[in-house]
Amino acid sequence: MPARPRRAPGRPRSDLDEEVLAATLRTVHELGYAGATVDKISAAAGTAKTTIYRRWPSKGALVTAGLVSAFGPLPPVAGDPRQNLAALVRWGADRIGRPGVAAAFAGVFADAVSDPDLRRLLRAQLQEPYRSGLEQALAVPTARALLIVDLVVGTLLHRRGITGETMTEADVQQLIAAAESLLG
Amino acid sequence: MPARPRRAPGRPRSDLDEEVLAATLRTVHELGYAGATVDKISAAAGTAKTTIYRRWPSKGALVTAGLVSAFGPLPPVAGDPRQNLAALVRWGADRIGRPGVAAAFAGVFADAVSDPDLRRLLRAQLQEPYRSGLEQALAVPTARALLIVDLVVGTLLHRRGITGETMTEADVQQLIAAAESLLG
DNA sequence: ACAATTCGCTACCAACAGTTGCGATACTGA
DNA sequence: TCAGTATCGCAACTGTTGGTAGCGAATTGT
Predict the structure, then answer these.
(1) Which residue, counting CA atoms, is nearest to the C1' of nucleotide C20?
(2) Strand positions, DSSP E, A50-130
(3) How far is residue A27 CA from its own chain's centroid?
(4) Which of A22, A56, A129, B13 could be a cystine partner for A61, CB 3.0 to 4.6 Å?
(5) CA-to-CA distance for B139 and B143, rounded, in angstroms?
(6) Whole-number Å distance between alpha carbons of A86 and A60
(7) What is the model's pLDDT at position B184?
(8) Predicted structure pTM score
(9) Which of A31, A162, A171 sits opposite B122 (nearest CB)?
(10) Are A123 and B162 in contact (CB under 8 A)?
């Protein structure tokens, strides 16, 4: 018999996950990944550092959760693969252009190199959930979907990482054209 | 009258720049950017931490110098732009696939967000020197050359950052095809 | 009332980037 | 040979950070 979804005893968690994640990206935006200390993030969220560590096991996991929250679910698409690709690239460009997102990516990537737990978290929460939706929207096999993600996300992140600026509309159009050449 | 290139007085610097930079990438490869402490790097290079800080102003600058040393000068190319592009993509894929390079990139990108000095160094030592050579080899204007760099380098780095693996030959060929669509 | 759990707070630890000071060393120039 | 200068390796230090431990108070179900 299935366990009834009865509420566990004890004081329930306050509803502040979203506020903490928003404060995380805000602080990373202002101070960079290294400058955004967990003390400062908790102060910006109006809570305590210990509360944050009760919910996320490390700073990298916290920032990863902030990224997941900033991206949200893949937008629904219903066209042919070419149309879908253009819409998805614009969606990604918008999200990566939001304050703090690129800096957060750089930080978790750097941390993940020496942190296997964080690496697993990245793949499970950021790569895997989007991969399957992309395969369907673009009608491509897995390996091709992953390459397209590398191309689009990598290009957008590198631009922000090196120049600190977002892409011009003309560059986004070129990026769409380059990605289209991978649709097969 | 020109100042004679007379050697400055005092004990000359030991010839250990290259050994330190190699030890830097080696250590970043093994332990990640955060795990590669300057203490460990200096130990791996067989020198003292203070000697490193006498030559490079920060850990970020040290790792950036390691990257510059790992890439070396742009290889000479002498074909039409299409041939040159393919050769340059393969050159970049080889360099970014070398141990420690991708992890070093992620680390300096993350640090650069909150360190204007490091941001300037990145552009002056890693972006600017290659941009002009690329414009000539590919016969494209500046903005297009920068976009191609974002596309190629960004894609290669994102693949290593997320999966930790290098690209298959088939993927490199697809990347070349995608970049070619930007040649105009 | 009682058990269970979270909250905010203070205090703490180990590790790291970067600095300072020192004696020893290697070179130049007179 | 002797001063002057700059480097070297070493040890000790500072300030900060990620993360932990322990507490009394608050909030729920039974």
Answers:
(1) B50
(2) none
(3) 16
(4) A56
(5) 12
(6) 31
(7) 82
(8) 0.92
(9) A162
(10) yes
The distance (Å) linking the CA of A17 with the C1' of D27 is 18
CB contact under 8 A, B111 and A181: no
CA distances (Å), B99 to each of A36, A114, B27, B74, B130, in order?
29, 14, 10, 19, 21
Nearest by CB to residue A158, choosing from B114, B150, B174, is B150
Bases of strand C lying below 7 A from some protein CB: 3-11, 15-21, 24-29
pLDDT tens sequence across B119-158: 999 999 999 999 999 999 999 999 999 999 999 999 999 9
Nearest to A44, CA basis, from A69, A66, A21, A67: A21
* Of the candidates A56, A145, A48, A41, the residue with the CA atom closest to the CA atom of residue A100: A41
The upper half-sphere exposure of residue B163, i.e. CA atoms within 13 Å in the direction of its Cβ, equals: 18
- Confidence label for A4 from pLDDT (cuts 50, 70 and 90): very low
Q: Which residues contact A57 (CB under 8 A, 6 or more apart)?
A: A117
d(CA B2, CA A14): 73
